[in-house]
Every structure is written in structure tokens, then in C-alpha cells.
Amino acid sequence: MTMPLPRLSNATLLFATLSAITLGVLIGSAVIKKRNDFKPAERGRLVDVPVGTTMPDQLLTFRLFDGATAAPNQDGDGNPLPSAAGENIVRATAPLKQDVVTIDVPARGQLEYKAIMQRGASLVYHWRADGPIYFDFHAHTDDNTSGFYTRYANGESIADGGSIVAAYAGQHGWYFENAGRSGVTVTLTVAGFYDELIPVEL
Hints:
Elements: H1 10-27, E1 73-74, E2 80-81, E3 97-105, E4 110-117, E5 122-140, E6 150-165, E7 170-177, E8 184-192, E9 196-200
Antiparallel strand pairs: 1-2, 3-8, 4-7, 4-9, 5-6, 5-7, 5-8
């Protein structure tokens, strides 16, 4: 059965807008290794990519500068030119999605949620728990037969948030482990260009 798409609330739109604005700051110096002929000179060019296709490997460039005090570049006629082109952007080839899930982690229990993402897709997230909980934010390919995985962050906390760009297609998400004697509830908010958000049986 097909479910109707929910209307986005003002809070949801604000979350998505703020997430997009802070993406460059949160990612910092993230780099996807450049392995083909996608030349740096083409980064500022508009690219018409059909939905569902994968963008070519990109050298992602993120730079911070003071736009309030920077002197504008000018062409020979004195017209303003951009001071940055093709920087601080991750192009999307899929529709924007958002999910909010409530995760009840029982005492001495563990649960995992993963976003299924294509290579080059971006995602912003925030989660908050009503008590301390161990988390491991990591990724691996869909089949996960080789044991290869990457870790974004881990530790014990009551909240975490940020953004990622998937360096490869696979499952990118959160493992939660509750070592306490009472249950902990985690509220996870995810927005971005992922395929779906799913619970993973452990």
C-alpha cells in the first residue's frame, strides 16, 4: 500500500534549510578521492544528472572565508565576479527526504538504524536520548561480507548531530547500546538524499 507523503511543517523546513547551510562547516575538509576525468574546472558548471544516477567521483572542496570583509573580484569592465565557484556544495541526484524515528533501547539492550545511501549522497542528522547511551555511527557496504567498515563517530552521550557525505554506497547509521538498568528512548531525525531509513536486526 502506498502511503501519502506528509506535508512538511515549518520546523521541518527550517531544519532542512539550516542543515543545508551548515553542511560545508560540518563536513570541513571531507574529501572523496578523485579517480576519473571530472576536472576541477568543471566543478562550477551546472550538470543535468537524471534522478537515480550516480555523480562522478568529485574532489569536494570546503572553504571558510569572511564574506563580510572580502574584496570582490572584478572582470575587465568592473563587473563583480564570484570569489568562489563550485565550492561548499554537494550536488544531489535524488529527492530530499526526512524521517523522525523513536528508538526504545531496553536495559542491557542494543538497537541499530541505518540509512541506505548511494555514493556521493549527503545526509544531516540529530539524535537525542532521555538518558546516557553508547553510540557508534559507522558505515559499511550492503553485503558487509569482508568486514570492511568506516566509523564517523562513537562514544557515550545523550545527543549528537552533524552531516556526512557517503564515500561509497551502503548502509550508514547508528548502533545504540544501553548498559543501564532502565530503558532509554532515542529520537533520531534524519534529512537528506538517502534511499531509506531502516532498523537493523542484531
